[in-house]
Amino acid sequence: MLSIHRLSLVTFALLTAAGIARADSQPLPASQPDSSTAQARAQAAMSEFGTRLRAVLQEQLQAQGPLPAIDVCHVQAPQIAAEVMQTHGVRLGRTSERVRNLANAPTEWQTQLLTEFAAKVAGGEAPEAQLAKQHDNLPDGVALRVMRGIPVEAPCTVCHGTTIAPEVAASLLTYYPEDAATGYSVGELRGAIWVEVLQQVTP
Ligand code: HEC
């Protein structure tokens, strides 16, 4: 049963790759396969990064509390990002209007989208509903840019909230003397995850 299932998946993948399994027989506009592939890569990269980071953070918080978890964020967030970038052929990261790590400071296009997201959230929309895609006027080598809003959830307030335990605050200060990422409440927009999908090099 399993092997039949697997076989049919492989067959489907091959057919799809060859362009045979398309439901409609109408030819798609030339740009569409590329842009849908780029979107799939962006989506896959964002969800892998989000899932992995959340898992290590949650595990550390539960097992050892916030202090070692700060270390996880400091060391592992950039490490996981690097691995995801390599796997999916993208650039990716987290940013915010108020950053903890200056290395996460938004670039110009990110600032513009963060401002738009913040305005919509101020107007009553959910932070996680914020999604923007840019296809045009991108730098050389970039096929697509995507950005999605990140909400503040209850566990986040341990390190980003309005009341932070003194030992947590002290530890944050040693890593990030210019930390601006505190004072958040649950349901606010904490920032965004961004992806730049790089054009695939065809051999
Ligand atoms: C244990 C403490 C801790 C918890 C809990 C925590 N963070 Fe952070 N957060 C950090 C640290 C440390 C950094 C800086 C990471 C780095 O150096 O790149 C950071 C950075 C970020 C950034 C990148 C932008 C910036 O400010 O540098 C975002 C976005 C973010 N956190 C969102 C969240 C969200 C959402 C949650 C809850 C799901 C959360 N964090 C929970 C410690 C924490």
DSSP strand count: 4
Present as ligands are: heme C
- Shape label: globular
Kindly estimate the percentage of residues that lie in beta strands according to DSSP.
5-15%
- Record the strand order, biggest sheet: 1-4-3-2
Task: Give the count of helical stretches.
Answer: 6
Mean pLDDT: 85
Residues in helices, as a percent range: 40-55%
Cα-atom radius of gyration: 20 Å
Give the count of structural domains: 1
State the order of secondary-structure elements, H for helix, E for strand.
Answer: HHHEHEEHHE
Biggest sheet record? 4 strands, antiparallel
Report the span from N to C terminus.
Answer: 37 Å
Poorly predicted ranges (pLDDT <50, ≥5 residues)? 1-32
What class, by secondary structure content?
Answer: alpha+beta
Top keywords for this entry?
binds heme C, 6 helices, alpha+beta, 203 residues, single chain, disordered N terminus, four-stranded antiparallel β-sheet
Task: Describe the protein's architecture and organization.
This protein has 203 residues and is α+β, with helices and mostly antiparallel strands. The chain has one domain (31-198). The chain is 50% helix and 15% strand. The chain is built from six helices and four strands, in the order αααβαββααβ. The protein has helices at residues 2-17, 31-64, 66-88, 108-122, 157-160, 166-175; strands spanning 90-95, 131-134, 142-151, 189-198. A four-stranded antiparallel beta sheet has the order 1-4-3-2, sandwiched between helices. Strand 2 (131-134) and strand 3 (142-151) form a beta hairpin. Helix 2 (31-64) packs antiparallel against helix 3 (66-88) and helix 3 crosses helix 6. The longest helix has 34 residues, at 31-64. The radius of gyration is 20 Å and the shape is globular. Bound molecules: heme C. The site of heme C has 26 residues, from helix 3, strand 1, helix 5 and strand 4.
